[in-house]
Amino acid sequence: MKLNNFIHDNSGKSLALFSKKKFIFNKNLVKELKQFYNKKKKEIRICMHSSKKSNLQVMVNLIILKKNYQVHYHKYSSEYYFPLYGKLRLVIFNKKNNYKSHADIDGKKNLIGKISKGDRHIAVPLNKYCIYLEFRSGNFLQHKNVFLKKNIKASYVHELK
Fold first, then answer.
1. Nearest by Cα to 104 from 37, 44, 160, 33
2. Tens-digit pLDDT profile for residues 41-87
3. What is the CATH number of the domain that holds 122?
4. What is the pLDDT of residue 127?
5. Alpha-carbon distance 159 to 142, whole Å?
């Protein structure tokens, strides 16, 4: 399936693509996502679930390296990250929004990352961009993302040891 065969939804922070048909996510779609990045330099996600009302959200995300990331948490669900291309750093903050811990996942040595419900966090690519599979429970309409007034510079995240 080609990216232009999906239904485009621009209502979120990044372009979301939905398919009304069942499809297999294959390496050709990863290649198309890379081409999309090379042309547009924008974030995009392919939704494997059929709508925002689906109780299981399964997405293939392409996120880009930015200057700043806003710390946030999810009130009602945990998230699972599976990198398909590139490396991703998951950074956890305490309730005072101070650094607590981090983990790097790359899809090779460290395969899966988990952010628990209520954990304040950011996900930052360690390359120009990262493509990863994300799972979370609960539909998007009831999903409560809480964005905090704390922004973290990518340079800070990349320097963490």
1. 160
2. 999 999 998 778 888 889 999 999 999 999 999 988 899 999 999 99
3. 2.60.120.10
4. 94
5. 35
Is the pTM of the predicted complex or chain greater than 0.85? yes
What's the angle, vertex CA 27, arms to CA 105 and CA 30, rounded to 5?
A: 60
The structural domain count of the chain equals: 1
3-state per-residue secondary structure call for 65-128: CCCEEEEEEECCCCEEEEEEECCEEEEEECCCCCEEEEEEECCCCCCCEEECCCCEEEEEECCC
d(CA 17, CA 46): 5
Rounded to 5°, angle at Cα 13 from 8 and 110:
100
Q: Phi/psi of residue 148, each to 5°? A: -95, 170
pLDDT at res. 54 = 82
Residue 124: domain span: 3-159
Look up tokens 């390496």; give the residue. 27
What is the chain's length? 161
